[in-house]
Design brief:
Its main location: membrane. It contains 24 helices and no strands. The protein is mainly α. The chain folds into four domains: 77 residues; 196 residues, Up-down Bundle (Growth Hormone, Chain: A); 45 residues; 210 residues, Up-down Bundle (Growth Hormone, Chain: A), CATH 1.20.1250.20. Helix 5 runs antiparallel to helix 22, helix 16 packs antiparallel against helix 21 and helix 17 packs antiparallel against helix 18. It starts with a helix and ends in a 5-residue tail after the last helix.
């Protein structure tokens, strides 16, 4: 009720009572009886008491209105104060954004130092190991099959069937991927338990063991020893594919993270090329030389054991996971060759604050988290786009693929070496492009080019089969080499790198473990299934891969965000505020 309403009500009451009193007084003046006078006076007294009560009630209501007005004034003062605080907060946010922008600019100015180069070289020896053991089984296929035939005949006194020898060789190829699945899935646990550097150092024990088993296979006259060696070296390579990209992404400066992440794939391609060159008949691709060829896998493991102990542990692991700030500062000073590491520390602290709710996240929690589901799906599909692109069909069976297209055995082996050389060159070319063009753009170019040339490979097979045109064999070789070029540009390196970039420190090990497991599972499916696919589809062998490439291109275009020059905190914010795009 307003103050005006109260005044109006009181005036009305007073008017009514005044009229009543006037009426009573008139009655008294006309009358002369004592009794009537007494009654009239009593009524007047009652009226006056009611009037007094009304006045008191009005005073109470006026007091309440005054209190309400004081409260309203206080609230207005509070609103004004809140408004001033919001203005101050807005100014603070503006200053914070400006400070963050300046910090990011300083981070983008960081360069490549000698010690950072050394640490990356020591780490990527693990990926060189992976590349070497992926390609090493390809060239000596005939020599290994001859060894298996001899062992079988000595044991059982009869010749082994061609079908069974093919199955045994497929086991030797694919058991490597089974070991890789186990190692890849264990990578997250190992990274958290022993650290990135510590996990890599321990992993070399497996590398040395697997290489020794493969190297002494012929001496022991047991192809089971070859299978065991391939399995153990597979576990070693699976752990490497999880730990190495994680370590490099965490020690690399913001502006070099893409280019240095591509060094992972460069090491893989160098390992592939090395295995192909050493595997030719003139060097180690002989009946006596192939165990040495497989046993040389010991070299990257020993070299990493010698070089890596000097390198620092990942500063992010030290600061965010272990909360050892001084150790993290020491590591950063060595990696950046500077005492000015505050920007890096601040950036890590910002990442830590952004992912507080996700720290020390388990694999199950990662899968169930709504916030992390989108980056996890992207990471998995990116890994599948690498394996189901058809590239491993080229790696594992390139020599026989070229021979079936009409090349001689010797020409086919040199064409396979050409694949390795082109992979190395194109990976080198993609290093500067990674931080200029961006991950998403290069991945789209890579998948698109692979799709086009997978169609050309199928066409060349079909025309050669039906028209028997000799030069078509060269078209299939050129198409295959172009297919490899586009793989090196995008799908070769980006899936390893982007999975580490999409996640903050807490969920990163579990995410890498899942992604690497998926990669190795797909690797195994292609390795074990491609010979059957080749038999069933013949000249249409690459058609399923063309379909997959089209699907992966659409997914990348629609769902994958650009992570170029973004801090881990900014990438995490993309998925918190939307779907990443």
């Amino acid at each position: 009720m307003s103050y005006g309403d109260i005044s109006y009500g009181l005036q009305k009451q007073v008017s009514v009572m005044s009229m009543n009193l006037s009426a009573k007084l008139d009655d008294l003046q006309r009358g002369d009886r004592h009794l009537e006078t007494t009654v009239a006076l009593c009524e007047i007294r009652t009226q006056l008491q009611e009037l007094t009560k009304s006045v008191e009630s009005c005073q109470t209501e006026v007091s309440e209105v005054k209190r309400d007005m004081v409260a309203i004034k206080h609230e207005l003062d509070t609103v004004q104060q809140v408004k001033e605080e919001i203005e101050e907060l807005r100014e603070y946010v503006d200053r914070l954004e400006e400070h963050t922008h300046r910090r990011k600019l300083r981070l983008l100015e960081q360069g490549l130092t000698f010690f950072l180069t050394y640490a990356i070289f020591a780490a990527v020896l693990g990926m060189l190991q992976f590349g070497y053991n992926t390609g090493v089984i390809n060239a000596p296929e005939v020599n290994i099959e001859n060894f298996m035939k001899d062992v079988y005949k000595d044991r059982y006194g009869e010749d082994i069937s061609e079908e069974f020898i093919q199955q045994l060789y497929s086991v030797a190829v694919s058991i490597f991927a089974i070991g890789g699945m186990l190692g890849g899935f264990s990578g997250g646990w190992m990274a958290n338990r022993f650290g990135r550097k510590g996990g890599l150092l321990l992993n070399n024990v497996l590398g040395i063991s697997g290489a020794c088993l493969m190297g002494f296979t012929k001496m022991s006259h047991s192809y089971e020893m070859l299978f065991l060696g391939r399995f153990i070296i597979g576990v070693n390579c699976g752990l490497n594919t999880s730990l190495v990209p994680m370590y490099i992404s965490e020690i690399a400066p913001l502006n070099l993270r893409g280019g240095l992440g591509t060094v992972n794939q460069l090491a893989v391609t160098v390992g592939l090329l090395l295995s192909q060159v050493l595997g030719i008949e003139q060097i180690l691709g002989t009946n006596d030389g192939w165990p040495v060829l497989l046993g040389l896998a010991i070299c990257p493991a020993i070299l990493q054991l010698l070089l890596l102990p000097i390198c620092p542990e990942s500063p992010r692991y030290l600061l965010i996971t272990k909360q050892w700030e001084e150790e993290a500062r020491k590591a950063l000073r060595r990696l950046r060759a500077s005492n000015q590491v505050e920007e890096d520390i601040e950036e890590m602290r910002a990442e830590e604050r952004a992912q507080q709710s996700e720290s020390s996240i388990s694999t199950i929690e990662l899968i169930c988290s709504p916030t992390l589901r989108a980056p996890l799906i992207i990471g998995i599909v990116m890994q599948l786009s690498q394996q189901f692109s058809g590239i491993n069909a080229v790696f594992y069976y390139s020599t026989s693929l070229f021979m079936s297209s009409g090349l001689t055995e010797e020409s086919a082996k040199f064409a396979t070496i050409g694949i390795g050389a082109i992979m190395v060159v194109m990976t080198l070319v993609s290093i500067p492009l990674m931080d200029r063009t961006g991950r998403r753009t290069l991945h789209l170019y890579g998948l698109g080019g692979m799709f086009i040339f997978s169609i050309f490979i199928t066409i060349s097979f079909l025309i050669k089969a039906r028209e028997m045109i000799d030069w078509m064999s060269y078209l299939s070789v050129v198409s295959t080499l172009a297919f490899v070029v586009f793989f090196a540009v995008g799908p070769g390196s980006i899936p390893w790198m982007i999975t580490a970039e999409l996640f903050s420190q807490g969920p990163r090990p579990s995410a890498m473990a899942i992604a690497v497991l998926v990669n190795w599972m797909a690797n195994f499916v292609v390795g074990i299934g491609f010979p059957s696919l080749k038999t069933a589809l013949e000249n249409y062998t690459f058609l399923p891969f063309s379909v997959f490439l089209a699907i992966f291109w659409i997914f990348t275009y629609k769902k994958v965000p650009e992570t170029k020059n973004k801090t881990f905190e900014e990438i995490l914010a993309l998925f918190r505020h939307g779907n990443g795009r």
